[in-house]
Design a protein that fits this description.
By secondary structure, the protein is mainly alpha-helical. It has a single domain, classed as Orthogonal Bundle (Tetracycline Repressor, domain 2). Helices cover 78% and strands 0% of the residues. It is built from 9 helices and no strands. Helix 1 crosses helix 4 and helix 1 crosses helix 6. The chain is elongated. One of its GO terms (molecular function) is DNA binding. This is Transcriptional regulator, TetR family. InterPro entries: Homeodomain-like_sf, HTH_TetR, Tet_transcr_reg_TetR-rel_C_sf, TetR_C. Pfam families: TetR_C_13, TetR_N.
């Protein structure tokens, strides 16, 4: 990497947790300069504006989650085990290098809904990619005769994602991690019920 690329990557790495915790509106240039130790001019010498930093920070945070999923999925053999990865990662998020501030899809989707079209688009792309991953896993499970062929893969994928994200939101709002564990038991049941 060139010096400029290294600086850009450094800015993204240091500001990504702040954007994930405080959101786009709550993150100031002072937050960015404090986190990086760089001047405003140095940050904006590498990025056109705060929007560009926020978009890159979202990509960085999402890539951290995707790396966790990829590593955990590779350890599993059956479709059921692979689908349960999505439950286990969130229930045991403290044992993974999770982005500071929690799930970037949930955080960004809620904040950017009416305020930041670029971030909203990235959050939606993250959801759709997640949905597609689950649909493909279910498809492989059906082909391997592990999953009942009468299930609707898209419906199951959306239900799993909505329940996980809703569980995270309830746990964050209440401060009660046991609520998340209870909700994840419901996701686990949905997955177990798919198996023939």
């Amino acid at each position: 990497m060139s010096k400029a690329e290294k600086t850009k990557a450094f800015i993204i790495e240091k500001t990504a947790p702040i954007f994930n915790r405080k959101g786009y509106a709550g993150t100031s240039i002072n937050d960015m300069t404090e986190a990086t130790g760089l001047t405003r001019g140095s940050i904006y010498g590498n990025f056109s504006n705060k929007d560009e930093v926020a978009l890159a920070a979202f990509d960085y945070n999402l890539s951290k989650i995707n790396e966790i999923y990829k590593a955990e999925l590779a350890k599993q053999n059956t479709t059921r085990e692979k689908l349960l990865v999505f439950v286990n990662v969130y229930v045991n998020f403290l044992s993974h290098p999770f982005p500071d501030g929690g799930c970037p899809i949930l955080n960004t989707a809620i904040e950017a809904d009416d305020t930041h079209p670029g971030l909203k688009k990235k959050a939606l792309a993250g959801i759709l990619r997640w949905k597609q991953t689950i649909i493909e896993l279910i498809g492989h499970g059906i082909a391997a005769k592990e999953i009942d062929p009468s299930v609707n893969p898209e419906q199951i994928a959306l239900t799993i994602i909505a329940t996980i994200e809703g569980g995270i939101m309830i746990a964050q709002a209440s401060g009660k991690m046991n609520y998340l564990k209870l909700i994840m038991k419901s996701v686990e049941k949905i997955i177990n019920d798919l198996v023939k």
